Amino acid sequence: MAGSDKNIWVIANWKANKNIQEALDWVAKVGPQIPKQNNLKVVVCPTFSVLSEVKKAIQVGNFPMLTGAQDLSPFGVGAYTGEEPAAILKQFVDLAILGHSERRQNFGETDEMVSQKVAQALANNITPLVCVQGKDTPVPDGVKLIAYEPIFAIGTSNPDTPQNASMVAKNFPGKEVLYGGSVTSTNVKAFVQQENVHGVLVGGASLEADEFLRIVKACEEI
Ligand code: PGA
After folding, report:
1. How far is CA 160 from each of CA 8, 64, 151, 155, rounded to the nearest angstrom?
2. Which end of the chain is more exposed for a tag (fewer CB within 10 A), N or C?
3. Residues 114-161 pLDDT 10s
4. What is the pTM of this model?
């Protein structure tokens, strides 16, 4: 049982990985091992095309996990070819990762688009998790959950220090701030032990069920 009563979020960002079978294998391994603990929020964020199957598997297994999208449309439903609007996604997700640096870099996502996406998420009862790359990234109104993800740390095995993550988190008072960037089962504890850090956003290390479970376990003991 966690000693602290702050919320701890452990969010698996699968990025563009895992087909349906791989996703279901992961859920079957991870789901039964997630502790039922109110302040521990475990979220899995698959690709859009796998979301409905993952959601179903979590419901059937009655696993204490939430689901998230890795993005959503800045527009509503209608003539927006190729987009995934929040009004449809809300059938499957509790949360959406918005403004990830990979979207900013590879898909030209701007702060303006991020704020439109946040508005869509909020209007559809999806919790926006906005990624900031440092203390100066703007955070749209209504956002309560933030992930500090310094670009140098993403997928590099070169995480920021827990102390610096905590310092950056202090710039967002009243929000729950997670850390992301090369989180593993070895370093996760040092991040979530920081008073201002409310969990982790995990990319590469979330793909392997056993490693992800070790990360969850480490957070459970906080
Ligand atoms: P990483 O990615 O854990 O593979 O560094 C984190 C993220 O981009 O969310």
Report:
1. 19, 30, 10, 12
2. N
3. 999 999 999 999 999 999 999 999 999 999 999 999 999 999 999 999
4. 0.96
